[in-house]
Write a structure and sequence with these properties.
By secondary structure, this protein is α/β, with parallel strands linked by helices. The chain has 11 helices and 14 strands. It has a 7-stranded parallel sheet, with helices on both faces. The protein has a 3-stranded mixed sheet with strand order 12-9-14. Strands 7-10 form a two-stranded parallel sheet. The structure holds nicotinamide-adenine-dinucleotide (NAD) and UDP-4-deoxy-4-formamido-beta-L-arabinopyranose.
Length: 336
């Protein structure tokens, strides 16, 4: 299949591209490099031994996007990764988030209508559930995001479902829980300028780039008092996109799936596992709770298993080992 990948140079897209190329799909990537570099694309090609086609374009510029659809006139499906994703930044700069995530998506949806593309996979997030009433979270839980980033994801889902109904699109929405880890080769991985999430931060502390991890509260209602999350290996997550595309080929309609393991780990368990992976204790201190955090978020991934035939395979050890391999082989990320 010829697939357009927005945000195609980013963290999750890079791993997904490797899986898609291994299934012989033809990939057309679009990215403006606001949070990535062309180096990740080069490495995906090296790992896969296959070429991709690439356009540097900003989704907010519809003319640039139309040129891509014009040039690639037989696109079968779109996987839409491109978005800004930092929760804290979205609180400080909500308009930037609405403009980038919503306007960018609207332009993409408009191009799909104009060029008759009807199959779509969307990168959504557990963030749309906010502070869920029931754990593990099912897809039927209410959507009530609590920050501008989460609102953009919930809105993009809604616009997409409305457009799908009007234009007869087939859509899979994947709500990722907490993606972590890197490709087994250590050649591609997460390369944040400043890490917003736990594991990249732990990884940089382990590498001596930062002093210590601050654990955001040890008085949560969890077994060891620290926050519990459903961490999922990025390679498992990448494979969920391959399954989602297969679903679109075989079944017509709109589908929403949680993509997690269903198993949770606390912050202290993550630090301990990482200490084992890197061979020395990762220093940390207990700090105050972070605004907006919740005690526990876990997926119920059974719908994805039943309907997509997808299930996470990789364990915590593989998540932290691969993250450490990527960190130690690329101390400066893709700048190495
Ligand atoms: P990422 O920042 O590595 O990838 C996003 C890519 O989109 C980047 O390469 C960036 O340059 C590009 N991009 C952003 N705005 C663009 C625009 N206007 N035009 C063109 N390109 C643009 O992030 P990621 O972690 O790979 O996330 C991918 C998707 O998954 C995002 O939609 C994100 O919201 C979602 N998601 C991520 C997580 C996570 O923890 N990483 C969790 C849930 C959902
Ligand atoms: C995990 C746990 C923190 C950093 C976020 C987004 C969500 C999704 C995934 C995009 C929590 C604790 C963290 C640190 C810590 N992204 N922590 N010290 O908050 O579950 O989810 O990323 O869609 O939308 O909200 O992930 O990695 O930030 O935190 O103690 O330095 O680690 O309190 O318990 P989170 P996270």
């Amino acid at each position: 299949m010829k697939i357009l990948i927005t945000g195609g140079a980013g963290y999750i897209a890079s791993h997904t591209n490797v899986e898609l190329l291994s299934k012989n799909h033809e990939l057309i990537l679009v990215d403006n490099f606001c949070n990535s570099t062309p180096e990740s694309i080069k490495r995906v090609e090296e790992i896969s031994g296959k070429k991709v086609k690439f356009y540097e374009a900003d989704l907010r510029e519809i003319d640039a996007l139309e040129k891509v659809f014009e040039a690639e006139n037989d696109i079968s499906a779109v996987i839409h990764f491109a978005a800004l994703k930092a929760v804290g930044e979205s609180v400080e700069k909500p308009l930037l988030y609405y403009e980038n995530n919503i306007s960018g998506s609207l332009n993409l949806y408009k191009c799909m209508v104009k060029y008759g593309v009807k199959n779509f996979v969307f990168s959504s997030s557990a963030t749309v559930y906010g502070d869920p009433d029931q754990i593990p979270v099912k897809e039927t839980a209410p959507v009530r995001a609590t920050n501008p980033y989460g609102h953009t994801k919930a809105m993009m889902e809604q616009i997409l479902l409305d457009a799908a109904k009007a234009h007869g699109w087939n859509v899979v929405i994947l709500r990722y829980f907490n993606p972590v880890g890197a490709h087994e080769s250590g050649r591609i991985g997460e390369d944040p300028e400043y890490p917003n999430n736990l594991l990249p931060f732990v990884s940089q502390v382990a590498a001596g780039i930062r002093d210590k991890v601050t654990v955001f509260g040890d008085d949560w209602e969890t077994p060891d008092g620290t926050g519990v999350r459903d961490y999922i290996h990025v390679t498992d997550l990448a494979k969920a996109h391959v399954s989602a595309l297969e679903k679109l080929v075989n079944d017509k309609g709109t589908f929403i799936y949680n993509i997690g393991t269903g198993r949770g780990y606390s912050v202290l368990e993550m630090i301990e596992a990482f200490s084992k992976a890197c061979g020395h204790p990762v220093p940390y201190r207990i700090g105050p709770r972070r605004a907006g955090d919740v005690a526990t978020v876990l997926a119920d991934p059974s719908k994805a298993e039943k309907e997509l035939g997808w299930k996470a395979q990789l364990e915590l050890e593989e998540m932290v080992n691969s993250a450490w391999k990527w960190q130690s082989l690329n101390p400066k990320g893709y700048k190495t």
